[in-house]
Amino acid sequence: MDPILNSFADFASSLNYRDLPANAVAASKERLLDTIGCALGAYNCDTAKVGLALAPPPASPALAGRVLGSNELRAADAAAFVNSCMIRDLDFNDTYPGGHPSDSMGGLFAVAPQIDVTGERLITAVVVSYEIFIRLQMKAQLREKGWDQGFGISVGAAAGLANMMGLSRDVAMHAIAITAVANMPMRASRAGQLSMWKGAATAYAVRNAVFGVQLAAAGMTGPEAPFSGRHGLTDLISGPIELPPFGKQPEQFFIPRAKIKFWPVVYNMQALVWCAIELRKKVPVDQIAEIDVETYWSAWHESGSEPAKWDPTTRETADHSLPYILAWTLRHGLIDHHAFMPESFMDPTIRPLMNKVKVRIDDEFEKDFPRKVHMRMTATDLTGKKHQVYVVNPLGHEDNPVSADDLATKFLRLCEPRLGKTGAAAALKQWQNIEQTKNVGPAFDAVKVQTER
Questions:
Q1: pLDDT in tens, 95-129
Q2: What total number of domains does the chain contain?
């Protein structure tokens, strides 16, 4: 027997909307809204185009999935891939240290409008996906061992789909087991100069989760102990782990800890952007001789430990480059999509400023992470004078949450170019009240893009 698998199957097959405390419902609704906005903002992105070109029609109506932003029906697993590519493309969706739990929603978005689920069921399925993903991220420490987030994303996605589809405990167990043993991606996806795969790797995991659920629903059985059995996760990779138990009290739900981004860069650089905004108020950029950045291990390792981050040649590398994000923000006072155009990150005039940046790990900051996020920046000017700025828990952190107005503004900014002002406002209202709908189909209709792909 596998106690981890059993707990996941129990949770996925039994959680109901009425079991959710208010903080979990609110967090799920916020992240649904944020994720829809991020996906529409990236509609027609390159990874989604590739996925759509390969997406076949469904073999039967029961295996159909909807492509977000359209009425197109494709095979559900292929639609899930395209959806998660859009969700992930801008690197603007939410995060929990080590991964992006909202990536899993691509599968839910593909299937939900096809099976006439209620808003309450969609909210609950999102909670299931997040709770399982976050627990695995907290305890298995896969990133630190060189494995990618797709494992937790796929397992969470399979469990969320099983919940939303109302599958039995046995079917949910087999779906989760099949998905777990078949999806252990390497973190090479996020090393060196980053490729398009950086924005498609978790989409591939979600695609596989959808197919794993379909297999189980059709009668396929899975391994009995994929997590804690022989040759399972704890035997081969993580070592023994004890996951926080599931429950029904507010403190037993971790979805509110998933951090919402204010800037379209990797989460560990959110505080860096705020530091740079404050620093440019203290010292003119052309008077800076050097900049010393103190941070925690994850921020250093992901964005400041490789030569590629000092010479980004792809968009995917640029939005993970500490020196580039810092230099751009010092120059412009903010960072947005303009920073990730080739003419911006390949601009040779920004390299000298980037080369003034040094980054190191502060042991105290590392001890506090992830419950607290610290970033300290000290600039020395040409006269030798030092100017320091310090940010703790940037906007979007669970202890410094974005407001409803902030979230609505982000949604409208991302969606208006696709839906128009009137359409975006109508979609915002529907998704802000998604728990009230008896069929989520019209809410997905509301985010149908007005222009041709």
A1: 998 899 999 999 999 999 999 999 999 999 999 99
A2: 2
